[in-house]
Design a protein that fits this description.
Elements: H1 8-13, E1 18-20, H2 24-29, E2 36-37, H3 43-56, H4 58-68, H5 71-87, E3 92-94, H6 100-111, H7 122-140, E4 142-148, H8 154-159, E5 164-165, H9 167-171, H10 188-204, E6 209-213, E7 218-219, E8 222-223, H11 226-232, E9 237-240, H12 244-267, H13 269-286, H14 288-291, H15 293-313, H16 319-342, E10 346-350, H17 352-365
Parallel strand pairs: 1-2, 1-3, 4-6, 4-9, 5-6, 9-10
Antiparallel strand pairs: 7-8
Helix pairs in contact: 3-4, 7-10, 12-13, 12-16, 13-15, 15-16
Length: 366
């Protein structure tokens, strides 16, 4: 039998399969990528046992737990664990602290004829390991930021580099007021765990310098780790440039054509098209106060006309109207101000191919 493990580095570097024996409510608050929740107790059972523990102590709580999870209920759960263990012979099981629940799960599996190892320290220890992984990288590694006006293709640059951290990818959000996707964002803990595992794997492969896209503290609802965000205010900056026309086309592609296709693939042509239109209108409404009344009404009329034409003919050309207005009157003045304030940190500026080449060369020197 493989032994119980506290080698969290090995577990995450090698994507070891894991079975989470915590209750569904705990799992929903945060978990690790690819992990399967096969709880010892459901939420109601866990609450009852917890109340019993507070009132009568551990022995009484264990007795009640074994009474609640017995007979056919126990058999079904053990069968699900057995199927997981047989399908994932290199895996582990865990609970919150690596204590009683994972020990009971392990014992019941053993009684069913399967020796299966657990993670010592459980979820809490693995979570602490990942938080420390991010903190250590901020302390020990070099970082460089890719900045640029809206629509210059910063994410495209990130995707071409082996040493980049795709914050927007991990957050499933494009990072702007219009950046919400058709699919939901991960929870905060899941976002942090994904980012830390990415950092761990890259550092294990020898990366000492990371490239990040310039972001605000929040990427949609996901908040960047504070130590990383603080560092991003001082890291050197590479500024990405593109023509106004190129930026309009990229925004049209990302925020209209592709986003609409995402909604349609999830909800079907009719519902998907309606939900896409709602999302676009809501995104504009979210910045109404910052736009001011007159400008908002003008851009809204342009967007509504474009959506009506898109629904009628499938053509997206009219969307360029509100995109151009939003860039010229809202985003560009804001980014020009930001660029001026960040000018001392800019070490290189150029269009996409030049920026990618510069960043690859910069990595090679490290």
């Amino acid at each position: 039998m493989r032994g119980n493990s506290s080698d969290y580095r090995d577990i995450f570097l090698n994507d070891r399969p894991m079975m989470d024996a915590r209750a569904p409510v705990e799992f929903a608050k945060g978990a690790f990528p690819g992990v399967l929740n096969l709880p010892l107790m459901n939420d109601v059972e866990r609450q009852k046992v917890g109340t019993c523990y507070k009132q009568h102590g551990q022995d009484a709580a264990i007795a009640q737990g074994q009474q609640l999870v017995s007979g056919a209920v126990k058999d079904a759960r053990v069968e699900a664990w057995r199927a997981f263990a047989e399908a994932n012979p290199e895996g582990y099981l865990y609970c919150f602290r690596g204590g009683l629940r994972s020990q009971i799960t392990q014992q019941w599996l053993k009684e069913a004829g399967i020796d299966y190892p657990r993670v010592l320290g459980g979820y809490k220890a693995m979570r602490s390991f990942l938080l420390e992984t991010t903190q250590q990288a901020v302390t020990e590694c070099a970082f460089v930021i890719v900045g640029g006006m809206t629509g210059t293709g910063k994410t495209e640059v990130i995707s071409q580099l082996s040493n980049s951290l795709d914050l927007e990818g991990h957050a499933n959000h494009r990072g702007s007021s219009f950046g919400k996707r058709a699919t939901v964002q991960p929870g905060q803990i899941d976002f942090e765990n994904r980012l830390a595992i990415d950092i761990l794997k890259q550092r294990a492969a020898g990366t000492q310098q990371f490239v990040l896209e310039d972001e605000s503290r929040l990427v949609g609802i996901c908040s960047l780790p504070l130590e990383l965000y603080k560092g991003m205010q001082d890291y050197p900056l590479v500024w990405l440039e593109d023509s106004f026309e190129g930026r309009v086309e990229r925004i049209l592609s990302d925020y209209v054509t592709h986003l609409c296709a995402e909604f349609i693939s999830m909800h079907g042509a009719e519902n998907g098209g309606s939900l896409f239109a709602e999302r676009l209108l809501q995104s504009l409404s979210n910045i109404q106060k910052r736009l001011g009344g007159e400008r908002y009404q003008r851009l809204l009329a342009s967007m509504q006309a474009a959506l009506a034409e898109q629904q009628r003919s499938g053509q997206v050309d009219l969307h360029r109207g509100w995109i151009e207005g939003l860039l010229r009157e809202y985003y560009d003045p804001m980014y020009e101000f930001q660029r001026e304030s960040k000018r001392p940190r800019i070490e290189f500026a150029g269009e996409q191919a030049a920026v990618v080449a510069y960043l690859k060369e910069r990595q090679a020197k490290h």
